[in-house]
Amino acid sequence: MCRFLLYKSNSPILLADLLTRPAHSIIMQSFNCKLRVDLRRPMNGDGFGIGWYDDEPQTPGCIFTSTLPAWSNLNLQRLAEKIKSALVFAHVRATTGETATSESNCHPWQFGNLMWMHNGNIGGFESIKRRLQNALSEEIYLTIQGTTDSEHAFALFLNMLQEGGSLKRTEFSYQELRRAMLATIAQLNVWLDEARVEETSLMNFAVTDG
User: Fold this and answer.
1) Predicted local distance difference test score (pLDDT) of residue 45
2) Could you list the active site residues?
3) Taking CA 88 as the corner, what is the angle to CA 84 and CA 92, rounded to the nearest 5 degrees?
4) DSSP state of 68
5) Using DSSP, how many helices (H) and how many strands (E) does the chain show?
6) Cβ-count burial of 209 within 10 angstroms (0-12 exposed, 13-18 middle, 19+ buried)?
7) Which tens digit of pLDDT belongs to each residue from 77-132?
């Protein structure tokens, strides 16, 4: 299972102080975690991603992803020593569902000012994948670049959010984001129940508009 980290504060922090320097940082946990639940995947070595926003108001965040393990990526070390942000997403990946190790499958993902990542899995996702895709508007369907259940869940979230108004905005209220998130989880559960999927799902989703 993947691992993620979220940081939000009034004060920017150096990424290195979150990601690389602490003794129990997410990078350290990706290969040396003593409290790992999923023992089938002893390391989170199938790529990583970091997303952050600068202090320019109402501007999209920036995302850096790589298929290399986070602990061996020199560019991550360099960037982490230079970038400060008050809102950070970080994710280290352990593949689920036999999905490919590719940058398009690395979290987080972005649509306008919105950023999304997921820790967990949608059990039996292949049983509902076609239904999910068919439910999407053409605009949102065409944004999907990878094959993961997580990115498809983001697409469904965007579809739910779009029902409340245009997505071409820089800000969303927390009520809008909450409504779309709950609607996304509820719809996924309906489809899974109808497909008689018994496998457990872990829908630990995170979203922000910066």
Assistant:
1) 47
2) 2
3) 120
4) S
5) 7, 7
6) buried
7) 899 999 999 999 998 876 665 666 777 888 899 999 999 999 888 999 999 999 99
